[in-house]
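Customer escalation, tier 2.

The customer says the design service returned an amino acid string that "doesn't look like it belongs to this structure." They asked us to rerun it and document both sides in this ticket. The original structure tokens are below, unchanged.
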């Protein structure tokens, strides 16, 4: 008479095989995306190649093609993951603040979170602000940019109570433009000099917003 428990005893090992394969695949994708980030930062998107990415990852081009059909697919996957993380970052950084929060504190906290993200992922700036990014990334970045502006407007509304919406929107555009210009300088430096540029960026934003805040509370 066959043992009833024999087949079920073998099932966990069989079921774990696809999970192990999936885990290996995720690790390989992460490895390839990390290599792509390094290549895109050093050469730019246009000059980058799948061969260079495979070489940076320490794998054969054939291994790369098992996961990505071309360079654009790699950039899109990398961009998607970075934009997801960026949305989480600005959700935390640009939440409304108490009206009693000092302006310099509110601005400094938001800038620090954004700078930390971009310093962790310099490829984000390289991909999103380059002249030759894939069309899908450009479209998603435009959507991200629009959402980011709305978040900045929400933060400014709490910092500048009573300001007309059109004025808040204009101020948000200026703040984002100043930040982007400052970010390029920040990423071009390291160590203490980078920190000095971060502080200069904060100073510019605070000094721009201070008269506006004073006018609303006068």
């Amino acid at each position: 008479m066959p043992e009833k428990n024999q087949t079920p005893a073998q099932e966990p090992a069989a079921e774990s095989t696809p999970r192990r394969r999936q885990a290996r695949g995720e690790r390989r994708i992460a490895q390839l995306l990390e290599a792509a980030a390094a290549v895109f930062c050093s050469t730019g998107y246009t000059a980058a190649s799948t061969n260079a990415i495979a070489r940076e990852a320490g794998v054969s081009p054939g291994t790369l093609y098992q996961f990505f059909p071309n360079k654009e697919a790699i950039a899109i996957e990398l961009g998607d993951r970075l934009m997801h993380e960026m949305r989480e970052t600005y959700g935390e950084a640009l939440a409304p603040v108490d009206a009693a929060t000092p302006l310099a504190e509110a601005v400094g906290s938001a800038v620090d979170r954004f700078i930390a993200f971009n310093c962790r992922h310099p490829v984000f700036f390289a991909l999103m602000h380059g002249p030759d990014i894939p069309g899908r990334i450009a479209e998603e970045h435009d959507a991200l940019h629009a959402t980011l502006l709305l978040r900045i407007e929400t933060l400014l509304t709490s910092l500048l109570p009573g300001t007309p919406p059109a004025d808040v929107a204009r101020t948000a555009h200026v703040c984002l433009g100043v930040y982007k210009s400052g970010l390029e300088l920040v990423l071009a430096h390291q160590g203490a000099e980078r920190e000095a540029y971060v502080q200069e960026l904060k100073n510019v934003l605070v000094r721009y917003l201070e008269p506006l805040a004073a006018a609303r509370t006068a």
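Tier 2 assessment: The sequence is consistent with the input. Residues 6-43 form the longest helix (38 residues). The chain has a mean pLDDT of 86. Sent an explanation to the customer and offered a walkthrough call.
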